[in-house]
Amino acid sequence: YLKENNIVSCSFMNKHFIFTSNLDNLSSQLGLSNRQTQRLIKKLYGKTYIQKRIEARMSMAATLLSETEISISEISVKLGFATAEYFSNTFKSYFGISARDYRKKFGNLS
Is 82 exposed, middle or buried (0-12, 13-18, 19+ CB in 10 A)? Predict the structure, then answer.
């Protein structure tokens, strides 16, 4: 976020939705208050911070499952989930298919 130019890079935001641990950290990196950050996210994406964070993490999970051989446990750690079970439950709730089945169905590896 370049405050002086009011520019927000979508790739910057997505990276931080995936890898920043919480709203406080993202707000600090943007140089905004938590409330300002929440309003900015709602304006840019039409979603709450939590909704956008889940979307970004699930998108990255889908990419990692389909394009790499990284284990599901390792993916859950990379994306900041407390446990592989929590990741798996979140993934299945979001996509309607288990992470293992998603990899079998959409994996691009031979």
Answer: exposed
